[in-house]
Amino acid sequence: MGEFLSNTFEQLVSRPAGPFGFRFILQPAVATILAIRAGLRDARAHKPAYLWTTLIQPAERHGLIRDAWKDVGRVFSIAVLMDLIYQFAVFRWIYPLQALIVAFALAIVPYVLVRGPVTRIASYRRHLTS
């Protein structure tokens, strides 16, 4: 089991230096742009910060996740597909769990980390100007 985890970790860490390394910049950038757009939309609608609301208010969680998936689902899907192509080109094998981990890190993490702070900053700035 230790060798499996070691190999998996080594394969995950080596991805940015290999083929398709540009996706480690492009996909988080696209997810960040989508998060900024969603955060500004949330601020205009006077909604609270995304991650905080998702964690604290279970009644709204389903709708928030569905809303986020509309924004970032395509980026996530492309990230999975590109990682599967990378795996086949480099390893001559496909590791679906690794593809999901990479896609989550490249698309979902930046989106979730950026959307809430953008909402708060935009709401604060709107409050100052009004």
Give the topology, please:
Elements: H1 2-14, H2 23-44, H3 50-56, H4 58-91, H5 96-129
Helix pairs in contact: 2-4, 2-5, 3-4, 4-5
Largest sheet: number of strands, sense, barrel closure:
none
Query: How many structural domains?
Result: 1
Give me the secondary-structure category. mainly alpha
Silhouette:
elongated
Q: How large is the radius of gyration?
A: 17 Å
Average pLDDT for all residues: 91
The H-and-E topology, N to C, reads as HHHHH
Counted beta strands: 0
* Distance N to C terminus: 59 Å
Primary descriptors:
5 helices; about 130 residues; mainly alpha
Provide an overview of this structure.
There is one protein chain. By secondary structure, this protein is mostly helical. The protein has one domain. Helices cover 85% and strands 0% of the residues. The chain has five helices and no strands. It has helices spanning 2-14, 23-44, 50-56, 58-91, 96-129. Helix 2 (23-44) runs antiparallel to helix 4 (58-91) and helix 2 runs parallel beside helix 5. It is elongated and about 60 Å long. The model has no long low-confidence stretch (mean pLDDT 91).
Structure at a glance:
With 130 residues, the chain is mainly alpha-helical. The chain has helices at residues 2-14, 23-44, 50-56, 58-91, 96-129. The chain has one domain.
